[in-house]
């Protein structure tokens, strides 16, 4: 029996990969304009990083990590997200000591979560994320939000909803935490085992429970907004006023808590409307995580970032029929007839490619008709035909496949002729 692909993973084949490259290019370009620099971190880390960073009461840590022991007996984990690793790299490499501050980083790479696979929920998925470390200015919260919204806009996505909330500072959170415990405690036996477990460890996460979301105590739970300190309130208002100034629409949702432990102050998600999209409507999540760098052993450093999955961006583009067509066309197909011409063809494609022209030839001993068909399938813009007769007089026939126009060109001039054609074609 053929070996199957693991559940929750996918092959991205030619034909689809062009969409990925296009999206990745948009991300690179946007990060360049916003002055975020790429960082590449390992795909596995010491398990402890995620226990401390993501939080040991989160679903990610409790249920979803790919954790294994290596041959040296160390516990390692395939990264379920990027923030903990980037923060670890920031500390390990003392990026806080560099002259350029804040440290503004981005990453694109696979993450691994042992989740129940469904539409838009995979076990290996690719996140594009940014992290800005070293600034507690609400303007940088606005910058991160502007970047992500602009990213989707430049992809051509519509009907996006930016939902923001403030989780407050430590004092606000502690006061809110106590209120939540008092609220749920008398009836906690009516909640699922996970929530019972969360009551003392992390009551905020009860609000995020999918099983108990319809319980009447959920609707009446104390809101974080009633417990925000004056500073937290002022911070959140400033973020909102920047968004308004930038004309970025948003809604405030006091129940948005996020599934990772490291957040405080600004938390946000980007959702997309649309039935065609199925169950998954959250495209992106992020927020501020002042305190995470210290948790990982670094100096006191504020931070904020987001991550979004490219798979979900593509699904949203498909649902909105906004995925652009990417016609991969090659410049030139070299058709040869006869043994001597075939040998010459090997040299010709080599020379054309060296000159920056995309070129292909036949490797299946196809007849002329078959070779022309192959050229057609590759959407070749020009075909170069080289038969015994042409070879004898040192010429090739070059045909523009769009106009049908044909020219005889000296073999020795072919590369420069094709360069001119290709460059001319690209200009128009
Ligand atoms: P997160 O909400 O766990 O946050 O994930 C962010 C995004 O990753 C989600 O909105 C979704 O697009 C995508 N995602 C998560 N799980 C899956 C999955 N199983 N399949 C497909 N896509 C998925 C974080 O990961 C934080 N590190 C975000 C962040 C960065 N916060 C601050 N900086």
Automatic annotation (TrEMBL):
Gene Ontology BP term (one): histidyl-tRNA aminoacylation
Source organism: Halalkalibacterium halodurans (Bacillus halodurans)
Subcellular location: Cytoplasm
Full protein name: Histidine--tRNA ligase
Subunit structure: Homodimer.
GO cellular-component term (any): cytoplasm
PROSITE patterns according to UniProt: AA_TRNA_LIGASE_II
Domain Aminoacyl-transfer RNA synthetases class-II family profile: 1-317
Residues annotated as transmembrane: none
Keyword terms: Aminoacyl-tRNA synthetase, ATP-binding, Cytoplasm, Ligase, Nucleotide-binding, Protein biosynthesis
Pfam family, one: HGTP_anticodon
Gene behind the chain: hisS
Binding positions (L-histidine): 81-83, 113, 127, 131, 258, 262-263
Entry EC no(s): 6.1.1.21
Main localization category: cytoplasm
Lineage per the UniProt record: Bacteria, Bacillati, Bacillota, Bacilli, Bacillales
Stored SUPFAM superfamilies: Class II aaRS ABD-related (SSF52954), Class II aaRS and biotin synthetases (SSF55681)
Coiled coil: none
HAMAP family recorded: His_tRNA_synth
Top-level EC class: ligase
GO molecular function, one term: ATP binding
Catalytically driven reaction(s): tRNA(His) + L-histidine + ATP = L-histidyl-tRNA(His) + AMP + diphosphate + H(+)
Family per similarity comment: Belongs to the class-II aminoacyl-tRNA synthetase family.
């Amino acid at each position: 029996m053929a070996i199957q692909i693991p559940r929750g993973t996918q092959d991205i084949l030619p034909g689809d990969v062009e969409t990925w490259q296009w999206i990745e290019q948009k991300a690179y370009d946007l990060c360049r304009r916003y002055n975020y620099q790429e960082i590449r971190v390992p795909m596995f880390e010491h398990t402890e990083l995620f226990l401390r960073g993501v939080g040991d009461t989160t679903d990610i840590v409790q249920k979803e990590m790919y954790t294994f022991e290596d041959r040296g007996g160390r516990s390692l984990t395939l990264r379920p997200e990027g923030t903990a690793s980037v923060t670890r790299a920031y500390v390990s490499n003392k990026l806080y000591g560099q002259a350029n501050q804040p440290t503004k980083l981005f990453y694109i790479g696979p993450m691994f979560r042992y989740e129940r696979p469904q539409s838009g929920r995979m076990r290996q998925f690719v996140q594009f994320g940014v992290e800005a470390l070293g600034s507690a200015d609400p303007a940088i919260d606005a910058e991160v939000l502007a970047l992500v919204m602009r990213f989707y806009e430049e992809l051509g996505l519509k009907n996006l909803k930016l939902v923001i909330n403030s989780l407050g500072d430590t004092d606000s959170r502690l006061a809110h935490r106590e209120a939540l415990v008092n609220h749920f405690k008398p009836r906690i036996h009516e909640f699922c085992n996970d929530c019972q477990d969360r009551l003392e460890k992390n009551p905020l996460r009860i609000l995020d429970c999918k099983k108990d979301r319809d319980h009447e105590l959920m609707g009446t739970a104390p809101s974080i907004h009633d417990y925000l300190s004056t500073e937290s309130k002022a911070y959140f208002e400033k973020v909102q006023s920047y968004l308004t100034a930038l004309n970025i629409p948003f809604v405030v949702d006091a129940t948005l808590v996020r599934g990772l432990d490291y957040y405080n102050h600004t938390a946000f998600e980007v959702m997309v409307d649309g039935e065609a999209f199925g169950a998954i409507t959250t495209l992106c999540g992020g927020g501020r995580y002042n305190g995470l760098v210290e948790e990982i052993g670094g100096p006191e450093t504020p931070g904020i970032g987001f991550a979004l999955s490219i798979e979900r961006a593509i699904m949203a583009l498909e649902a909105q029929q906004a995925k652009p067509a990417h016609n991969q066309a090659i410049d030139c197909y070299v058709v040869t007839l006869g043994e001597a011409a075939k040998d010459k063809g090997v040299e010709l494609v080599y020379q054309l490619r060296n000159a920056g022209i995309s070129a292909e030839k036949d490797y299946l001993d196809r007849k002329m008709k078959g070779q022309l068909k192959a050229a057609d399938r590759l959407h070749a813009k020009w075909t170069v035909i080289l038969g015994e007769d042409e070879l004898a007089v040192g010429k090739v026939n070059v045909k523009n496949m769009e106009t049908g126009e044909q020219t005889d060109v000296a073999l020795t001039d072919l590369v420069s002729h094709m360069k001119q054609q290709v460059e001319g074609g690209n200009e128009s």
